Amino acid sequence: MASNVNPTVRRRRLGQELRRLRELKGMTAEEVAERLLVSQSKISRLENGRRSISQRDVRDLCGVYEVDDHRIVDSLMQMAKDSRQQGWWHAFGDIPYSVYIGLETEAASLRVYESLLLPGLLQTPGYAEAVIPGTVPELAPDQLDKRIQVRMRRQERVNDPDRQLRLWVVLDESALRRVVGSHLIMREQLEYLVEVSLLPHVTVQVLPYDTGAHAGMSGTFSILEFDDAADSSVVYIEGVTSDLYLEKTNDVHKYTIMYEHLRAQALNADKSRQFIADTAQLHADAAG
């Protein structure tokens, strides 16, 4: 696969263009579905980029929308072809959050709020080996190995010299104090967190218990932003059986405001780094 072809992003861009063509035609998704004898949910999934789009789908939709410009049709057909290629993560088999990985791989910046655990991009191998089976207790050993490998591979994005990810993380104190694996694992994890927080493109802030009520108490979330203006920002909310992706401008704006409040309430970067280091020492003392 060409390194500059991200199938997830291609599907999003293609879906946005197909939605634009439908709206220019003044048709509803239900009307299009009736014309093509398919379900309305299929049209919606094609437009939101959550479903693979075939060249036949593009051809049929362009026919319904009466697109006469062959250059537009050819361009959309090529995007459909690119969107069916495989990203690096497909080599690991069926990964439940593969859509998110595709977006994360292409993102220019990522803002994360976590209340109970460290974000995957900043986990040590020891922490990952302990937290994954803890959160997915019936995971088969081979699947556990694959998820650990995927998590470590994702971290290459943080230090990619060509496309460094601008990462901003706000953590509740609970994520630092919860003993995942052992106190020794937590000491190693938090020492690594201090180290990575010194990188110029990574910011880590802590929300101590004494902050009291804060904007993140309704749940964890991430905000992904992209360099290409054609790619709208996405709010990602992880679920047990399914994940939620919010792309409407109003939704993204609300979560962006929430994140600004979290950043304002949290300790600044320097104080957070010291807080993390002190907590790492507490784990070291507890480990004996």
TrEMBL record:
One family name in Pfam for this protein: HTH_31
GO MF term set: DNA binding
InterPro entries per record: Cro/C1-type_HTH, DUF5753, Lambda_DNA-bd_dom_sf
Residue ranges of domain HTH cro/C1-type in the record: 18-72
Superkingdom assignment: Bacteria
Protein name as annotated: XRE family transcriptional regulator
Organism per entry: Streptomyces kasugaensis
Highest classification ranks of the organism: Bacteria, Bacillati, Actinomycetota, Actinomycetes, Kitasatosporales
